[in-house]
Design a protein that fits this description.
Layout (H helix, E strand, L loop, with lengths): L2 E12 L2 E12 L3 E5 L6 H8 L4 E9 L2 E2 L5 H7 L1 E4 L11 H8 L5 H14 L16 H14 L4 E5 L7 H18 L2 E5 L3 H7 L2 E6 L2 E7 H5 L2 H8 L2
Parallel strand pairs: 3-8, 3-9, 6-7, 7-8
Antiparallel strand pairs: 1-2, 1-4, 4-5, 9-10
Helix pairs in contact: 3-5, 4-5
């Protein structure tokens, strides 16, 4: 199986603030990869760097073999990468339908309408909510809308930054199920940054442990979840 993402000796941060130090990371196509670590370890910065939102001092990021280091985010999105940040990435005063239309603004009208019908089949919850404003929806419902907005663009890679933050356990489990569905049924590769470490390891294939901006572990998620030393030191397991 080929790698969809290849990061090599990456040093990156924000302006002069150095966050990632010689990070090398590969993600196989069709898998779910978890990036874990303590708060402030640089997990979100990895996703932002892939998506062109940080300063890269050295090293490289490749997507399907193409060097995308320092490329503009809108160009990266058009290659098939969707980034779902932890902060609100929806328009709260617009309806669900309007948010979906905004997500597919580069599509022709007929194609956009077809994609909107398509995401309603994937996320049946949306069918009754199309005219509802996002501000009236719960956190879990908004997360579903965010995932649908990303799916409109038919990405081959989806990067989630703490998708279950502030959600009740039952709702969080539903979000994880949808992420697994996107991976298995639609062959979308997933990179997952998540504070619910145990659940992230249970649902992912591979894992990277970041500590102070450096890779401390990489390998099978099942191996990490049974590694008592690393679990106690860095993950609270």
């Amino acid at each position: 199986m080929s790698n969809i993402i290849e990061i090599e000796n990456l040093n990156a941060g924000y302006g002069k603030t150095h966050i990632l130090f010689d990070v090398s990371l590969n993600v196989e196509e069709g898998t779910i990869c978890a990036i874990l670590g303590p708060n402030g370890s640089g997990k979100s910065t990895v996703l932002k760097t892939i998506f062109g939102l940080t300063s890269v001092y050295s090293g490289s990021v490749r997507f399907k073999g193409q060097d995308i280091t320092g490329m503009k985010p809108y160009k990266i999105a058009r290659l098939g990468i969707a980034y779902l940040p932890q902060v609100e990435s929806v328009y709260l005063n617009l309806s669900v339908k309007e948010n979906l239309m905004m997500a597919g603004y580069i599509l022709q009208k007929d194609e956009l309408e077809e994609r909107i019908r398509y995401v309603q089949e994937v996320f049946p919850l949306l069918k009754n909510y199309m005219e509802r404003k996002l501000i009236t929806l719960s956190g879990g419902e908004r997360q579903i809308v965010v995932m649908a907005m990303a799916l409109i663009r038919e990405p081959s890679l989806m990067m989630f930054d703490e998708p279950t933050a502030h959600l009740a356990p039952k709702v969080a489990n539903q979000i994880f199920e949808k992420i697994k569905e996107l991976n298995k049924n639609f062959n979308i590769t997933v990179i997952l940054v998540e504070q619910n470490v145990k659940k992230a390891l249970e649902e992912s294939d591979m894992a990277y442990l970041l500590v102070s901006g450096k890779i401390n572990y990489y390998g099978s998620s099942k191996d990490l979840i049974t590694n008592e030393q690393l679990g106690k030191l860095f993950l609270g397991l």
